[in-house]
Design a protein that fits this description.
Elements (H helix, E strand, L loop, with lengths): L7 E4 L2 H12 L2 E5 L10 E6 L2 E7 L8 E5 L3 H11 L2 E8 L4 E7 L5 E7 L4
Parallel strand pairs: 1-4, 5-8
Antiparallel strand pairs: 2-3, 3-4, 6-7, 7-8
C-alpha cells in the first residue's frame, strides 16, 4: 500500500526558498540538513497540513521541478497567493480536466499547481 509522496524541488538558494515557502505559502520547515563546513543548507523539508515538499540545493537543476497539490478550497489558496504577491504562471480557472486550479512559481521558477475537483453533480 502506498501512503505518501514527497516531491523534491531543486533550488539555488535554500534560505530564500525557505523564506518564500514559509512567508508566502504558509509552509513550515520541519527538517534541515546542517553541514558545519558549508554556510548553505543543502536539503530541507517543508510541510503544510498533509503536504510535504523536499527542497534540494541543486544549482544547475534549480527551477526545473514542479508539483501539483490538491486542496479543499482552490479559491481560498488563490486569495492567499494573491495577497502574498506570488508570481502567477496561470490564473485560477475551471479546467477541462475537472479541476478548479492555478499555477504559481517559486523564486527559482519551479511550478506549483493548486487545484480542487469541480463538483459536477
Amino acid at each position: 500500500m502506498l501512503n505518501h509522496v514527497s516531491p523534491t524541488l531543486h533550488v539555488r538558494d535554500m534560505r530564500r526558498s525557505l523564506s518564500f515557502f514559509e512567508g508566502s505559502l504558509g509552509f513550515r520547515c520541519t527538517f534541515k540538513v546542517h553541514d558545519d563546513l558549508h554556510p548553505e543548507i543543502p536539503y530541507a523539508i517543508i510541510k503544510r497540513d498533509h503536504v510535504e515538499i523536499h527542497l534540494q540545493l541543486r544549482e544547475g537543476a534549480a527551477g526545473s521541478s514542479s508539483c501539483y497539490i490538491t486542496v479543499d478550497d482552490a479559491d481560498f489558496v488563490w486569495q492567499e497567493v494573491q495577497k502574498a504577491g506570488v508570481r502567477v504562471l496561470r490564473p485560477i480557472e475551471n479546467s477541462s480536466y475537472g479541476m478548479r486550479d492555478f499555477n504559481v512559481a517559486d523564486p527559482d521558477g519551479n511550478s506549483l499547481g493548486f487545484g480542487q475537483p469541480i463538483d459536477r453533480g
